[in-house]
Amino acid sequence: MSRLGTETAFEVLARAKALEKLGRNIIHLEIGEPDFDTPQYIIDEATQALNNHATHYTPSAGIPELRQAIARYINRTRDLDVSPDNVVVVPGGKPIIFFAIMALINQSEEVIYPNPGFPIYESMINFVGAHAVPIPLKMERGFAFDINDLERLITPKTRMLILNSPANPTGGVLSRSDLEAIAQLALSHNLIVLSDEIYSRILYDDEFHSIASLPGMLERTIILDGFSKTYAMTGWRLGYGIMPVEVAQAVSRLITNSTSCTATFTQIAAVKALTAPQDEVDNMVEAFRQRREVIVNGLNQIPGFKCLMPKGAFYAFPNITGTGRKSRDLADYLLAEASVATLAGTAFGAHGEGFLRLSYANSIENINKALDRIDVAVRKLER
Ligand code: PLP
């Protein structure tokens, strides 16, 4: 248990809520979830499923209709040819990280993961007794990593490489040419790739590219995706993985031994989410695009802050070294002084030092208010 990490976002949320109880007005830019509600047609489908008594167990890997709908969706969005046998439905995207690492990684093997990155990668690698090898993401490369760094970090013990594009916490997106170079290394060193594509639909400029679509990669890639971010369904706990059939069978066995299956009525609603018109998703992404402009422009006016325009997800990740403060100190100060909850870059690993993460899944009004408050608080620091 001592090797298992945690997620700071939940801790900061608890601290912010405690301050709210004392009467403070906190602006929440720490949480990584859309502020929108789940589209009504998805809620209606789930309600109807419950009324139709869809209240029993399902097969561990998911109901056939949903596995079929996911396979079609993945084939359409990634130009792939996967079958329902490659699909495993789980309660959220997170269990794919948990189960894939449990199923595939042995003690003392090495796993390369992005840093700063989603903290659960490092936590799970350590949990199974493997070596977590961070690959630093570089602001000057738009928060991609340097391919030469990757080549240097691969050893005969390297078994898996984790990718996350678009990325949490940086908003960075891996280019097609980077993916091609990474695929070459994965093929020549016989690596498995865990490709976390949970933000694949929250993308502002480019088309989405999955490494699984490159020649020879589907057989060695596990795609993680889900409904949390795309359809504003974080609390439903609904995600899935695409993987080779033998891995799908192993992961299904882990599901049988832990959750048994994913809730039935949510799976029925998920079929609707994937097959209905996608206007609400497009509208949500459009709203994020406008907020992205507001927050990045505002952050760049604050003394000591330097922020790139994120290409995907809904996070701004400014460099704050110009304030002269460490990430954690600044995040604590902003909560105490400005009543704005943010996360230190170090909540996402050691290479997050010098950065803050601000989620812009919040109204433009609140974002502007937060920017004003941060500006005033940071200018006080200067004196
Ligand atoms: N992967 C990344 C990069 C995330 O940011 C998150 C959630 O914040 C997840 C996976 C997990 O998503 P879920 O809530 O569906 O488990």
Q: Would you mind describing this structure in some detail?
A:
The protein is built from twelve helices and 13 strands. Helix 7 (176-188) links the parallel strand 6 (158-164) and strand 7. It is globular. It folds into two domains: 8-31 and 279-381, Aspartate Aminotransferase, domain 1 (Alpha-Beta Complex); 40-275, Type I PLP-dependent aspartate aminotransferase-like (Major domain) (Aspartate Aminotransferase, domain 2, 3-Layer(aba) Sandwich). The mean pLDDT is 97. The strands form three sheets. The chain has an eight-stranded mixed beta sheet with strand order 2-9-8-7-6-3-4-5, with helices on both faces. The chain has a three-stranded antiparallel beta sheet with strand order 10-13-12. It has helices at residues 8-21, 40-51, 64-78, 94-104, 119-127, 147-153, 176-188, 245-257, 264-275, 279-299, 327-338, 364-382, and strands at 27-28, 87-90, 110-115, 131-138, 144-145, 158-164, 192-196, 221-226, 239-242, 315-316, 340-341, 343-344, 356-359. With 383 residues, the protein is of the alpha/beta class. The chain binds pyridoxal-5'-phosphate. The site of pyridoxal-5'-phosphate has 13 residues, from loops.
Quaternary organization:
single chain
Biggest sheet layout: 8 strands, mixed
Radius of gyration: 21 Å
State the order of secondary-structure elements, H for helix, E for strand.
Answer: HEHHEHEHEEHEHEEEHHHEHEEEH
Strand proportion: 5-15%
How much is the average pLDDT? 97
Distance from N terminus to C terminus (CA atoms, Å) equals 44 Å
The percent range for helix content is 40-55%
What strand order characterises the main sheet?
2-9-8-7-6-3-4-5
- Which of globular, elongated, flat, extended, rod-shaped describes the shape? globular
CATH superfamily of the largest domain: Type I PLP-dependent aspartate aminotransferase-like (Major domain)
* CATH hierarchy, class of the largest domain: Alpha Beta
The parts where pLDDT drops under 50 for at least 5 residues are none
How many domains make up the coordinates? 2
- What small molecules does the structure contain? pyridoxal-5'-phosphate
Q: Under CATH, the topology of the largest domain is which? A: Aspartate Aminotransferase, domain 2
Instruction: Count every beta strand, where a strand is a DSSP E run of 2 or more residues.
Output: 13
* Named CATH architecture of the largest domain: 3-Layer(aba) Sandwich
